Amino acid sequence: MKKLVVLASGSGSNFQAIIEAVRNNELNIEIAGLITNRDGIGAIEHAKMNRIPVNVINDTDWDDFKLKLIDQLQKWQPDLIVLAGFLKKIPPEVITGFPNKIINIHPALLPKFGGKGFYGLRVHEAVLKSGDTISGCTVHYVNNEYDRGRMIEQKEVPVLPSDSPEILAKRVLKAEHELLPSVIKKLIT
Ligand code: GAR
To answer: What's the CA-to-centroid distance between 100 and ligand 1, angstroms?
Structure first.
């Protein structure tokens, strides 16, 4: 069976969507483990509830972080690495070590509203400010530039005149929970 490793820094609702897709037999993959850069986050709770191994790598020293990340990935040997709300840059050595195996989900229709600093509610604030009437989410390969790797698939949602950043974020997140497992399925089969 193919192996997946998820990297997350937050509540982990996308990670949970992957767990549910595996549980419902929509995804035939083993989740080898979760790597986070922060302790005490929701993603860790989801892993614990589902007996998925967790490695918290919260070193502030870049080289320590990089070496521990590489070491863990070499141990778990994933076929696919999914960044599900992981907000730390992936070291170039990891990107070259796992070519075409690292994907990221972003809460907007890239190439718009992406790049350094565009994460969480900031993305949705920028979308509302722009006046765009359609937003959505994007799954793309990860390269050395934030949110600029080759695009795999997008899912659109409407932007409504009454939206606040929080309401739009919820609508986009729901679309993310559908898009991410479906892209993983396509990539592993
Ligand atoms: C998601 O909306 C994801 O697209 C975003 O972080 C959120 C994580 O939510 N990622 C980025 O903004 C990356 N630039 P989750 O922890 O509930 O899955």
So the answer is: 21
